[in-house]
Amino acid sequence: MRALAPLFAAAILAAVPIHTIAQTAADAIRPPAVLPLDAEPAPRIVAYSALPEPLARGVVIVQFRTENFRVIPVFGNGATQVSPRVGHLHVTVDDGPATWAHTSEDPIIVVGLPPGPHRVRLELADPTHKILATETVAVTVPDTRSPNTHAAPPAHRH
Predict the structure, then answer these.
(1) 62 forms bridges with which residues in the sheet?
(2) Of 24, 82, 131, 149, which is most buried, counting CB atoms within 10 Å of its CB?
């Protein structure tokens, strides 16, 4: 047994440097955990067509995804240095006067639009509201009123 002790020690010592060297080599080629902002690809938003089933009921649901950008509820100058980039969406319907901030990855849901064509503009905004990318989705809200809900015909005069 004593004769095997040096062999065990040599085997252990031989395994440790190989493991250490392998770990160091992997660390040397691994990209940094956080990239400097100027080295990150530009943020991008991809918006999809409104979901057809809810749209048939007059509910506009627009799904989207972002690239090189996370949508979270964060605002202010300090958050502009976070990597990967973070921010929120500005959502505007029909170039109207009202825009709201959407602060999650959940779909955009718009209800109450009159029947007809509309545009939903999604803008990636950094924490200081600077617009980084824009995508617009065209939708046509159908007339969901049933034939029985139309205005009554004018009364006959005698």
Answers:
(1) 108
(2) 82
